[in-house]
């Protein structure tokens, strides 16, 4: 679990984190320990959304089915849904960037970081592009050449 705690990377914080004790939290895709649960974003002090990075389903050969590929942008309906939640409630988004694995300890690791018991210490191992145009303009075999990335290689904040 220590590796999971150390891999959590904080990219932006507008004073929401760490969560204060007693904060009512609406969650999607993650169970947080130690915080009262809210049934909807409207009933919450903070929303925490655990999302997977977008990808396109492929119908190729057997090997291709093991790799996520395609457009890196979230579908517009998902952006609209997240934006509606964030417009109503301060929102923390936890994005899993990579292939999912069975790691039930992530709930405890995320809870510890969100509550301020542990400091986030992860650093991005790659650029996070600002658009699909930037992705298309970058060279696939050259690391860190993304034009004007949203967050660059090595970025990560702490408390």
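-> sequence recovered:
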């Amino acid at each position: 679990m220590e590796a999971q705690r150390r891999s959590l990377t904080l990219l932006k914080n507008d004073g929401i984190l760490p969560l204060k004790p007693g904060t009512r939290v609406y969650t999607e895709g993650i169970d947080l320990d130690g915080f009262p649960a809210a049934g909807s974003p409207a009933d919450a002090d903070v929303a925490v959304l655990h999302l997977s990075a977008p990808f396109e389903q492929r119908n190729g050969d057997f090997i291709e089915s093991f790799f996520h590929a395609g457009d890196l942008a979230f579908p517009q309906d998902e952006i609209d849904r997240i934006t509606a939640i964030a417009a109503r409630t301060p929102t923390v988004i936890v994005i899993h960037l990579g292939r999912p694995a069975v790691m039930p300890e992530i709930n405890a690791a995320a809870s510890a970081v969100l509550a301020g018991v542990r400091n986030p210490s992860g650093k991005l191992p790659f650029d996070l592009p600002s658009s699909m145009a930037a992705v298309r303009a970058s060279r696939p075999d050259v690391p860190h050449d993304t034009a004007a990335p949203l967050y660059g290689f090595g970025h990560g904040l702490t408390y």
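Residues 53 and 98 are 7 Å apart (CA to CA).
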